[in-house]
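Pilot study result, target chain (367 residues):
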Amino acid sequence: MPLDIAIAGTRGIPANYGGFETFAEELSHRLVQRGHRVTVYGRSHYVDPGIHEYQGVRLITLPAIRSKYLETVSHAALSSIDLSFRHFDVVLFCNAATAFACLLPRLAGRGVVLNVDGIERKRRKWNRWGRGYYRLSERLATLLPHRIVTDARTIQSYYLERYGQDSEFIPYGASTERCTTTSELDRLGMRPQEYLLYVSRLEPENNAHLVVEAFLKADLDLPLVLVGDAPYNRRYIEELRTRAASGNILMPGGIYGRGYRELLSHCLCYLHATEVGGTHPALVEAMGAGALVIVHDNAENREVVGECGLSCDFSDASALAGLMREAVARRSEWEELRQRAVAWVDANYDWERITDRYEALFDELTG
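Predicted structure:
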């Protein structure tokens, strides 16, 4: 039976920021293709308020307080009020910070699902008040929505062990289609298989600085491309730019859509340095694009990579530099690992199967 579904808590679609936005875009248009009516709430400084539909998905754009600590919370509060006065069968909130916003639609009789993402309070960008808020939000996540979704087994285990709360494990999805075009590479002056790639929001816990340090130590002839941005971390980004200026490092900012896929599809290797969170979209997408991946060695990254990539402790600059040199020196020997990564993503992170699982969850909530 067709459902009226709302997705809130992201910056909105078309995706032009991060993983949750891509998730909202990929899930929403697939649900529309299956006959459901889907509305995605967006923020007015990310989504053009004049656009009311995208790929068959209805868009509602609301303002938000432009502050690192208040943007997500203020937009979630407005979205919660607005959607509670509209007819929706199910509401999907994204980000544990929006847990409080699950109460009003639940009282209004909507089925409410919350995708909590990772353990946000561990991010270094938050002060003690921010970490305290996320700790409270984790508790509210176990009380206010009807269902919690976790996108990594490690996060599922965390909520079960810390709060005794079971959750629905549904991972992030990715495509295994590789781009053959090279328009973005041409724009940046890159050649296929002749650059190393890092993609992430440029925040301290995503460790771009460790990648830069190791790259400079590796002393390679090939360039490193650092793709990403962050609206509230200008000082950190400027420090990165200063350090990058001493080596063959490009920082083109955020790149989305086909240009992003081109960079993933043609890189010699992809470097993933995150230390906090669940399943990181860029890592899954890089594997799906057939990239050789080198990841920071932690439980979350090991879960995603399996036996399909290389790993080390990125805080050990010599070890990471050694892996970079090895990736370049043995470039012809990594094809089997690349193919294994594509097969792993196809088996575990296919968007259509992910949509199946959300659809089944929504059906269960609505009876």
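One observation from the pilot: The chain is about 40% helix and 15% strand. A full batch analysis is planned for the follow-on phase.
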